[in-house]
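Priority: medium. Attachment 1 of 2:
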């Protein structure tokens, strides 16, 4: 049993295809998709019909290359060969002639015209994106690189934002219903600030779910602004045209939605420095203004030195007058005090006099005739009061001894 290497089989296929004269000179009609141009100017695309597709390459210079674009139906002339390095059968094209617009492209153009007339592409209805979104809705497949790329961008740039995924297929039979359901779910969430609808690159057929009229209306009716990041930069769908903002890639859509945290921090720091400098400038200006005003006030202040001296003189003079007045009043008071002391009954008693009162009614005795024999008398002298009894002045009886009592004064 013979065993062959991959290179041997690849070489055999190449030679077999190139030996076939029919495959060496033929015309093929079909629709162009996956069109790209290399830096060297070579053209790469796929020509296809409803059932099959064939990779094509067109090296420059070649005739009709300027006509190529996705969705164009063409007739291409060339030879079929086998590209050993990638193991691909492809058509090496040297001539391209237009055949007309392909069926999918025609359908797409017709839908664009209809939706444009309905106002879905109107620039005036495009909404601004929130500067600092708190919750971001995401319509994409839960598997693949797109979700991972968007999560990385949001986490790196603005980790304060929360991603809420509404998972859906993004191509195939269930893609359209899945996208519609995802928008319905996100529209029922009150605090969704913005929605990203995204998927990776692909052919026109693979991206067709985003060219459906129902999907366009779902994006148009979204409560939150919608950013599309579908395919690569050269891919352009109806969803991109209806969305409020279009990004060339899913990662670019995430960068468009969230601010750069590092730039925000730098901007805040710069603003703080600017504010601080302005505060100090304003404060310095106010201090200078106050100094000028104080200087002006001091310059315009009246000379109060003479009035102050006059006030001091008046106070001293008033003090002298007041002291003289008080001395005079003091002398008069002392004189009155001496006079009162002289006239005081206590002063008379000090000179040896006494006050005699009858014990019954405390009547002061002025005359002898007021006193009866054996009357109780109260004698008030300078240092107290004592009791006595009245006796006749001619009586020969022995006088009764009078015993002094403790003063009541």
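Attachment 2 of 2:
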């Amino acid at each position: 049993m013979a065993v062959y290497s991959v290179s041997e089989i690849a070489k055999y296929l190449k030679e077999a295809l190139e030996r076939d004269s029919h495959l060496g000179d033929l015309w093929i009609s079909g629709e162009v998709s996956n069109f790209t141009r290399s830096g060297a100017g070579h053209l790469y695309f796929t020509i296809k019909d409803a059932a099959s597709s064939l990779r094509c390459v067109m090296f420059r210079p070649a005739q009709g290359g300027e006509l190529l674009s996705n969705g164009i139906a063409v007739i291409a002339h060339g030879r079929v060969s086998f590209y050993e390095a990638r193991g691909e059968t492809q058509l090496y094209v040297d001539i391209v002639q237009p055949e007309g617009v392909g069926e999918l492209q025609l359908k797409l153009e017709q839908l664009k015209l209809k939706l444009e007339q309905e106002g879905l592409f109107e620039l005036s209805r495009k909404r601004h994106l929130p500067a600092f979104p708190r919750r971001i809705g995401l319509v994409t497949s839960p598997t693949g690189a797109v979700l991972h790329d968007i999560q990385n961008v949001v986490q790196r740039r603005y980790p304060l934002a929360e991603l809420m995924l509404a998972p859906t297929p993004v191509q195939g039979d269930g893609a359209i219903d899945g996208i519609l359901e995802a928008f319905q779910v996100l529209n029922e969430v009150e605090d969704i600030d913005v929605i990203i609808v995204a998927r990776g690159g692909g052919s026109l057929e693979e991206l067709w779910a985003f060219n459906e009229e129902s999907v366009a209306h779902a994006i148009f009716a979204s409560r939150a602004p919608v950013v599309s990041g579908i395919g690569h930069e050269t891919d352009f769908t109806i969803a991109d045209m209806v969305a409020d903002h279009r990004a060339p890639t899913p990662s670019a859509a995430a960068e468009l939605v969230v601010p750069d945290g590092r730039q925000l921090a730098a901007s805040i720091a710069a603003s703080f420095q600017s504010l601080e400098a302005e505060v100090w400038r304003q404060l310095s200006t106010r201090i200078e203004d106050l100094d000028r005003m104080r200087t002006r006030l001091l310059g315009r202040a009246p000379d109060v030195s003479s009035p102050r001296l006059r006030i001091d003189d008046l106070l001293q003079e008033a003090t002298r007058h007041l002291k003289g007045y008080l001395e005079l009043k003091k002398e008069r008071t002392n004189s009155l005090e001496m006079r009162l002391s002289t006239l005081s009954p206590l002063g008379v008693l000090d000179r040896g006099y006494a006050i005699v009162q009858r014990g019954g009614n405390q009547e002061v005795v002025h005359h002898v005739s007021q006193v009866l024999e054996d009357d109780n008398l109260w004698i008030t002298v300078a240092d107290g009061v004592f009791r006595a009894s009245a006796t006749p002045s001619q009586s020969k009886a022995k006088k009764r001894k009078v015993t002094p009592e403790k003063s009541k004064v």
